[in-house]
Design brief:
Elements lengths: L2 H5 L3 H9 L7 H6 L2 E6 L2 E7 L13 H17 L7 E11 L9 E11 L3 E9 L5 E12 L9
Antiparallel strand pairs: 1-2, 2-4, 3-6, 4-5, 5-6
Protein name: PaaI family thioesterase
Keywords: Hydrolase
InterPro entries: ACOT13 (IPR039298), HotDog_dom_sf (IPR029069), PAAI_dom (IPR003736), Thioestr_dom (IPR006683)
Amino acid sequence: MTSTTKASLSGLELLRAGAASIAQRPGIGQLLGMEVEALEEGLVSFAVTTQPAFANPLGDVHGGICATLLDSVMGCAVHTTLEAGVGYSTIEIKVNYTRTISVEGRRLTAIGKTIHTGRRTATAEGEVRDDEGRLVAHGTTTCLIHRSDPPSERT
C-alpha cells in the first residue's frame, strides 16, 4: 500500500486493510504474533499466545508483553476514530498488573476502548485477560492527535 493510499484512508479503514494482509502488519505485531480479534470504531481487540521467549528472569511472562498489548489496542482504538490523514502518538501509558502469567501457551486477549477523542488529544482504556477470562492487566493512555491545521488555526 502506498503512502498516498494510506493518507486517503480513515484510521479504521487503514487498520482493516492492514489486518487483511499479514505482510502489512506492523513489525511489533509480527514479532509477538498478534492476531486481530476485533476492529470497530472506538474498540479494538488483539490476542497473543505466550511462549518461552516472553519470559522475565523469574520465568513468567514479562510485563512488557502486556504493556505492549495495551499500548497497541488502546492506541489503535483511538486510531479507529480518526479521519483520513490524521495520525496519533502515545503521550503516556499507565499499566496495572493483577497476576503472573505462564509462558507455556496461554492465550492473552487485550481489548482497547476509546474514552474521548478530541481535536488534539484522546484517551483510551484497556484490559488484558487470559484464556480463563481472568484479568491479568489493565491500563489507560493519552494520545496526541497529529492534524494538519489550516494556518489560521495554528497557535
